[in-house]
Specification:
Layout lengths: L2 E2 L7 E4 L2 H12 L4 E4 L4 E4 L5 H11 L9 E3 L2 H4 L3 E2 L2 H10 L4 E7 L2 H6 L5 E5 L4 H10 L1 E3 L1 E2 L11 H7 L5 E4 L10 E6 L2 E6 L5 H5 L2
Parallel strand pairs: 2-11, 3-11, 5-8, 7-12
Antiparallel strand pairs: 1-2, 3-4, 4-10, 5-9, 6-7, 7-8, 12-13
Helix pairs in contact: 1-6
């Protein structure tokens, strides 16, 4: 069975397959909120160009409005449509994408800058998860923050995730995620790599690239 009945508030739960991804992409395009698996933890997201959906995610996570939301996409080429890459940065991401590396870059897309209330920079990543990549191929971009209340630990178990978050529209069930933790966040200036948050990739692994 493709789509399974889900809990209380009319939330739909789908499998990580063609039909489930199709349904999730429809809901995202209609302004809905999705919980989905990644290679690191379960994420919560929406169309990053939809201001109202972005506001809902801040509210659901009790996230500080001053903390910008990261964006997921499915390739370097797609990422280049909204952010500026120099050759050194491209070399780094080619080694680690798809994978658990988030890079802070200069945002070049005015619409996404406005909808996400960004200043001049955007955090972007290509996740190494087949299901999520298929979803991103349909949506191009997706807000991709961890599916938990801010300050709580992120979830790798779908059942824990289902218990701890409310008011989303669709849950894409990818089973239990085995990972070393969240993505590592870096910023690169003048070919110098600055670690903003160390996650599953260590500083040494990145610097050795």
């Amino acid at each position: 069975m493709i789509i399974k009945e889900k809990k209380d508030d009319d939330v739909m739960k789908v499998s990580c397959n063609k039909e489930g991804i199709e349904k999730a992409s429809e809901i995202i395009n209609e302004g809905g909120i999705v919980i989905f698996p990644t290679d690191t933890v379960y994420g919560i997201g929406c169309n990053p160009y939809n201001k109202e959906s972005v506001k809902k995610i801040y509210k659901m996570k009790s996230r500080d409005i001053m903390k910008s939301l990261p964006v997921l996409t499915y390739s370097i080429e797609t990422a280049e449509k909204i952010a500026e890459f120099d050759q050194f940065t491209k070399k780094i991401v080619k080694k680690f994408w798809p994978g658990p590396l988030t890079v802070i870059l200069k945002v070049t897309d005015k619409k996404i800058k406005e909808s996400l209330n960004l200043e001049n920079k955007i955090a972007i990543r290509v996740p190494d998860h087949k299901c999520t990549l298929e979803l991103l191929k349909k949506c191009n971009f997706l807000v991709g923050t961890s599916a938990n209340i801010s300050g709580d630990l992120p979830h790798t178990d779908p059942e824990e995730c289902l218990k701890n978050l409310k008011n989303y529209d669709i849950f894409v069930d990818g089973g239990i995620i085995t990972s070393k933790g969240e993505s590592t966040i870096i910023e690169i200036e003048n070919e110098q790599i600055k670690i903003i948050r160390e996650g599953s990739l260590t500083e040494d692994e990145i610097l050795q690239s």
